Amino acid sequence: MRDGALIGADTFGRGNGGNLTVNASGKVELIGTSVDGRFGSGLFAQQNRRNGIGNAGVLKVNTQNLIVRDGAQVSTATFGAGRGGNLTINASGKVELIGRSADNSSPSGLISAAAQGSTGDAGDLTINAEDLFIRDGAEVITATIGAGNGGNFKLSILLVNSSLLVSLLIIFIALLCVLLLVQVQKEMQET
């Protein structure tokens, strides 16, 4: 899928979102954004409304290789009160996350997060693969910037390259900063 193409099982209101499962014997490749940069290519099972109370569904990708590049994303985020979905990647070969969108505004990546202004909890993110490569600004995110809890991150791989370790360290430090900021904001509101 490329140039802003997407498959979604999102919810925008009270009802729960659907589950989305992709089974591919070869590879799943998600590339880039729409020409105007407004829509990233990807797979989505999200709660998409600030006032939405439905829970996002489960998103699973079962494949040999998963490639997400140039601003494309796989996401089960919540933007509302509903819980974000669980995201599971099962790759018998490799998972490659590469780069950002052409305008540098969106990272390529795997996302299970509770967005700013949301009150729902983020879902869990699980990656099972032989190899995992994250480079050139791509990201793996399971976090909360909203009032809800962040999800769990489970990683089971055979080979980790050095740039992955640096990327995971940066993500961990960023998450700690966000959590500290949220705690400070809560304390300031209480006083």
Which quaternary structure do these chains form?
single chain
Rounded mean pLDDT score: 89
- Overall 3D geometry? globular
Structural class: alpha/beta
Using only C-alpha atoms, the radius of gyration works out to 16 Å
User: What proportion of the residues form beta strands (DSSP E)?
Assistant: 35-45%
The number of helical elements comes to 1
N-to-C span = 50 Å
Query: What is the makeup of the main sheet?
Result: 7 strands, parallel
Low-confidence stretches: none
The proportion of residues forming helix, as a percent range, comes to 10-25%
What's the β-strand tally?
Answer: 12
**H-E order:** EEEEEEEEEEEEH
Description:
- The protein has 191 residues and is of the alpha/beta class.
- The chain is 15% helix and 37% strand.
- It contains one helix and twelve strands; from the N terminus they run ββββββββββββα.
- The strands form two sheets. Strands 2, 3, 5, 6, 8, 10 and 12 form a seven-stranded parallel β-sheet that branches.
Output the keywords.
globular; 191 residues; single chain; five-stranded parallel sheet; 37% strand; alpha/beta
Strand and helix layout:
Layout: E1 6-8, E2 20-23, E3 27-31, E4 42-44, E5 59-63, E6 65-69, E7 73-75, E8 87-98, E9 109-114, E10 125-135, E11 139-144, E12 153-160, H1 162-190
Parallel strand pairs: 1-4, 2-5, 3-6, 4-7, 5-8, 6-8, 7-9, 8-10, 9-11, 10-12
How would you sum up this structure in a few lines?
The chain is of the alpha/beta class and 191 residues long. It has one helix at residues 162-190; strands at residues 6-8, 20-23, 27-31, 42-44, 59-63, 65-69, 73-75, 87-98, 109-114, 125-135, 139-144, 153-160.
